[in-house]
Amino acid sequence: MEPCDLSALDARALIGAKKLSARELLDSCLARMDAVDPAVNCMVARDDAAARGAALAADEMTARGDPLGPLHGLPVGVKDLENTRGLRTTYGSVIFRDFVPEEDQLIVRAVREAGAIVAGKTNTPEWGAGANTRNAVYGATGNPFDPAKSAAGSSGGSGVALATGMVPIATGSDTGGSLRNPAAFNGIVGFRPSPGLVPSDKRPLGWNPLSVLGPMARTVPDLCLLLSTMVSDDACDPLATTIFGRQVRQSGDFAAPHAIDLASLRVAVTPDFGFTPTERHIREVFAEKIGLFGHAFAAVEEATPDCAGTDETFEVLRAVAFMAGMYERVRDTPELVGPNVRANVEEGLRYSALDVTRALKQQTVLYKNWQRFFERFDVILSPAVTLSPRPWSELYPAEIDGMPTRTYFHWLANAYAVTTVGHPAISLPVGLDRHGMPFGLQIVGPRGGDAKVLAVAAALEKLLAGDARTCRPVPDIARLKAASPISAMPGFMGFD
């Protein structure tokens, strides 16, 4: 095993014990990038000299016996929607093709302060719009299990970097599933925390809970390690609940998964939350997977909260959020903005104040429906994504099983059903589907049940690890090293 293939926890322990240097780990990660990234195009901006300087400083701290942070010496991939001091940050937009921030975004500053080393920026769709990681600055990112297929998104670059061993931890963000969708497509773990748990200093609508920041990793314990460095009550985010004079969120609450007895849990399972366009193939795979481990729970029942109106509600509220961030760019430079962003803004312009009011009222109805549902169940299990990975040359799935989709993001409905009501959720890799692509299981917890979701995911991960049908799949690194560059594929560079 090469150092880059170590878990974050193992690598951190070896660095702390002076059995592995931060420079050795970083060099291994950079070598993996050099060998594999041409096939998948996920690590899109690097400053190897700066990273090596940070690794040298980390090793000097270790040698002196200085106090070491929880992420000391660990390379991290940072999503290209998140500002990194001195390292190009484009948001996947040609408008910001050459932008180099002077300051780190809060989430980046937090992981650096915990000892992590920024190894590079990971690819994203333009402004995170859509779950197909492709843009006109860096081109498309391919799935490591088949580079011609989508890596999902919008944290697609982070998902691929983790799956291929380029970094042991990575950052991401999630509105319609952007932490969970790429986790599902790439066979890694992505967690959408409750709004405010990981504070955001960039959300243009501060009280809007749709968009959150969060962690990605290859395993649940690694993800918890990273999450613990992100949580805080920082006043930059009005959703970061605070009791004056008292720290509400403690990093130690999330540093490791809590123990939980799966046999004590009442579990609801649903392939579609009663409304999503889940393809028949995924429904059947989901049923097969549940059949392999459902016996581990106290009770398993096919059931779903009442989600009537979720599509309409999410569509309006998503459009409002895009209007807040993108309206002026679409108005002033439409030729420099891609079709997904334009579609959201154009949709938003069609809505009236009454439409927004109705959406907010329905969101509250949905929230209350979910609270009643969780009086009966501990967690909900569903497929993380409604379909198996399709070619990245497809801007978005226009149909599923022959039925037209409502919007370019309708295929993300299993994820945005959860986003709309603000519950925490994780995508856990559970083997492969019938097409040989990773299958992601979504675990949804009760309101504020972040620690519970992580505990269930960790217990399931441990239970499923010994079965080839359910363990985390790993891409063929040798095949990727030998593959032709993805940049040679037709349509690689562009919006659509």
What features would you highlight for this structure?
14 helices; 496 residues; single chain; 11-stranded mixed beta sheet
SSE arrangement:
Elements lengths: L7 H9 L5 H19 L2 E3 L2 H17 L10 E5 L26 H8 L3 E6 L11 E2 L3 E2 L1 E2 L2 E5 L5 H8 L5 E6 L5 H7 L2 E4 L19 E6 L2 H11 L35 E4 L10 H14 L5 E4 L7 H23 L6 H12 L2 H21 L5 E5 L15 E2 L2 E2 L8 H9 L3 E8 L5 E7 L5 H15 L12 H6 L14
Parallel strand pairs: 2-3, 2-8, 11-12, 11-13
Antiparallel strand pairs: 1-3, 4-5, 6-7, 8-10, 9-10, 9-16, 13-17, 14-15, 16-17
Helix pairs in contact: 2-3, 5-6, 9-10, 9-11, 9-12
Largest sheet: 11 strands, mixed
CATH C-level class is Alpha Beta
Shape: globular
Strand content: 5-15%
How many beta strands in the DSSP annotation?
17
How would you describe this protein?
The protein has helices spanning 8-16, 22-40, 48-64, 106-113, 156-163, 180-186, 220-230, 280-293, 310-332, 339-350, 353-373, 413-421, 450-464, 477-482; strands at 43-45, 75-79, 117-122, 134-135, 139-140, 142-143, 146-150, 169-174, 189-192, 212-217, 266-269, 299-302, 379-383, 399-400, 403-404, 425-432, 438-444. The chain is an alpha+beta fold and 496 residues long. The chain has one domain: Alpha-Beta Complex (Amidase signature (AS) enzymes), CATH 3.90.1300. α9 crosses α12 (413-421). It is globular, with a radius of gyration of 21 Å. The chain starts with 7 loop residues before the first helix and ends in a 14-residue tail after the last helix.
